[in-house]
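TICKET #2291
ISSUE: user wants both folds in one file
ATTACHMENT 1:
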Amino acid sequence: MIYFMHMPIFIYFNEIKYRSMYVFYSIITTFIIAYIFKHEVFYILSKPLGTHFIYTSLVEAFMTHLKIGLLVSIYCTFPLLLYHMWVFILPGLYLYEKKSLRIILLISILLFFLSSQLGYWYIFPVAFDFFLSFQVIGLEKLYHLELQAKMQEYLILNMQLFFSLAFCFQFPIILILLSKLKLITLSWLVQKRKYFYVLAFVLAAIISPPDVISQFIIAIPILLFFECSIFALEWIETYTKKRLETC
């Protein structure tokens, strides 16, 4: 970290300002593009539930499209944000730190996009089928009960599930970073493994719809990533010990 210690303070803040503005302009540009293609974007988001929606407020459709544009821009610029964070701290890292953080960065981006694909193609359809099962449709039924989904409420539910999944899939990255900061240790994680297993199912029950299948679809990847985190930390400790022995 010697680079940052000897770097003039105004250069330090100018670097932060430059990279923050770059990310900000990227978000604005992506937002404008997403709003221009707002109908196509909403059609893609609505596929897991259907294509029939209503709005009951005069400004609801307009505000929903603005929110969609903002969320899509955040989603698309997330890798760019991680990249600028990486480039900013890069000069102050040792060679072995650069290698490890480069791998963490790539895995974080991969898990972020993997979570959205898993949610869109598997979790959301299962969850929405569960909610749609409460409809009462048919001439032989005692009464008629049919969902007329509001576009804004659907978007909020969709994004809540999506960002919850994204956070859960970043779980191993968080554990590895906490370990690098010496806030947790590998032995502590192994010792508390059974509690993490319980926590995984508790989180899945909180953020997923109330059906067992969706909870397992969320909990199982969290547990797999937890075990991968332990394996990665074991590999990092072994590599660090070998590097220190050869020095």
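ATTACHMENT 2:
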Amino acid sequence: MKQQITRLSPHQNGKVCGILTAATSFFVFVPFLLFISLFVPAAGRPPFITILLVPLFYLVMGYLAVLIGCALYNFMVKYIGGLEFDAKDEAN
């Protein structure tokens, strides 16, 4: 049976994606930036607080990007239809 997604929750989806991107950046970019800072002269290094703010930046930008994307989807679904997928009921 074909089904369409007629609405995406902007706040909930933005919250989930923002947290996931922040967690990813914390475990990927923070160690990378700390490692790279070992090889950069002290005058050229970013302040330590800047490195810690990277996950916060990703949280905010991830949230806003998904929020805008969901709102745009919800607006456009009236005119072009929603995402379509096939689903079937599983018998127990």
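RESOLUTION: both attachments delivered.
EXTRA DETAIL ON ATTACHMENT 2: The first helix runs from residue 10 to 37.
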